[in-house]
Specification:
Elements: E1 14-18, H1 21-38, E2 42-44, H2 55-63, E3 67-72, H3 80-94, E4 99-105, H4 109-113, H5 117-129, H6 134-146, E5 153-155, H7 163-184, E6 189-191, E7 197-199, E8 211-213, E9 232-235, E10 240-241, E11 250-257, E12 262-269, E13 275-281, E14 292-301, E15 312-320, E16 326-333, E17 344-352, E18 360-368, E19 378-387
Helix pairs in contact: 1-7, 2-3, 3-6
């Protein structure tokens, strides 16, 4: 759900917002929309849905947009309007014509992706109400599984951050992405008969396959290369951390970091034997074909950390989504060398992004499978996917 209004017309790439009106229109959206316009961001919000707006018109607006914000909230999945928008957004994303930023408003990303709780019940009710439209509901479900895997921004129910604070961080993130799109260059656009813009056809990527390259020494500086947000981070909460739900083994807390003091949720190890932290980057079509990227775990070991005499193992695997060749890199790292340091980058591996017409899934794992070595003091921020040069 997302209209044009009588406000001044802003130029530049359009940002489309998909949201459930009854959940967020009167508070979150009422702050977000003017904040984006104050930042001179060309944003499209559907003010006309309740007045009978044609869904086809919204599909056109999505096609005219370069960025889509999807605001997942409690009742998002009980709206066929929202689900149709989401399916269209996924279609454009899969074509490499739309960048997507999912916002998890008072919801855990796993609740959306795994269709759990009230959110999942709402969606299952929608499926039952549309049993005669199997193709449509399949597209809904595929989109609900796919979009939450994109690097997004969660605002948890327990967060101390206000909607305004969160929105300020979101506006900064969008500005960086728009600036980056200008730096990298976007497809030439031409005016359509509605006065909007239509993307020209995208030049096909080269036909080279995925390849892995040897791990390199990590540099501290992150560059502005690559096709996604400068340094895409998968936060700790979206990783699969063995026993992270056990409060005797792991604790969750929030930190605020410069330069924008965004609130981040981190996992702190209390006491474990068996370590396994695993995550996935579901679709490389968001990245720049032919570029080298690295996946690094962002962690620190506290001054009193113990049990790290043995190295941890790291694995990175590239799986073609069409089921063809898989590649894998394995390495090890002695974390005891980092005890008492600030945040450090632990390299999982480096890969070359395949063509957009042959996207791949990247899986990365940090593990140590021992039963006689109690460990503590590891703090996990997430995993960064970023260009190597």
């Amino acid at each position: 759900m997302a209209s044009s209004s009588s406000e001044k017309t802003l130029m530049g790439p359009q940002v489309f917002i998909s949201f459930r009106g009854e959940d967020v229109r009167k508070h979150f959206i009422s702050f977000l929309h003017p904040a984006l316009r104050r930042a001179n961001i060309n944003v499209f919000i559907d003010h006309d849905e309740l007045l009978g707006a044609d869904l086809a018109d919204l599909f056109t607006r999505i096609e005219e947009s370069e960025i889509a914000l999807v605001i997942f909230s409690k009742n998002y999945a009980d709206s066929d309007w929202c689900l149709d928008e989401l399916a269209k957004i996924k279609e454009r994303k899969d074509q490499g014509r739309l960048r997507v930023i999912p916002i998890f408003y008072k919801l855990s990303p796993s609740v959306v992706k795994e269709l759990r709780g009230e959110f999942g019940d709402n969606f299952r009710d929608m499926k039952r109400n549309h049993l005669h439209q199997l193709e449509r509901t399949q597209k809904w479900e595929e989109a609900l599984v796919s979009i939450p895997t994109v690097i997004g921004m969660p605002l948890s129910e327990q967060s101390d951050k206000t909607d305004n604070d969160f929105i300020n961080s979101l506006v900064v993130k969008i500005q960086k992405l728009l600036d980056h799109m200008v730096v990298k260059g976007t497809p030439t656009r031409e005016m359509n008969h509605h006065g909007g813009s239509m993307a020209s056809s995208i030049v096909p990527a080269s036909q080279q396959g995925v390849s892995l390259v040897p791990a390199r020494k990590i540099e501290n500086q992150v560059t502005l290369q690559g096709g996604s947000i400068v340094s895409s981070m998968i936060p700790a909460r979206q990783l699969r951390i063995e026993h992270s739900e056990n409060v005797q083994k792991w604790a969750w807390s929030f930190i605020n970091e410069a330069p924008n003091y965004e609130e981040l949720e981190v996992a702190k190890m209390i006491k474990i034997h068996w370590l396994e932290i695993k995550g996935t980057y579901e679709d490389t079509s968001d990245l720049t074909p032919g570029e080298k990227y690295e996946a690094v775990f962002l962690v620190k070991l506290e001054d009193n950390a113990i049990g790290w005499e043995k190295p941890v193992n790291l694995k990175l695997k590239v799986e073609q989504l069409d089921g063809s060749d898989d590649n894998r890199v394995d390495r090890s790292e002695n974390l005891k060398d980092y005890i008492g340091h600030n945040w450090v980058d632990i390299l999982a591996g480096v890969f070359v992004v395949p063509p957009r017409n042959k996207p791949a899934k990247i899986t990365f794992t940090m593990y140590q499978r021992v039963t006689d070595d109690k460990k503590n003091g590891l703090v996990v921020k997430g995993v960064a996917i970023r260009p190597t040069n």
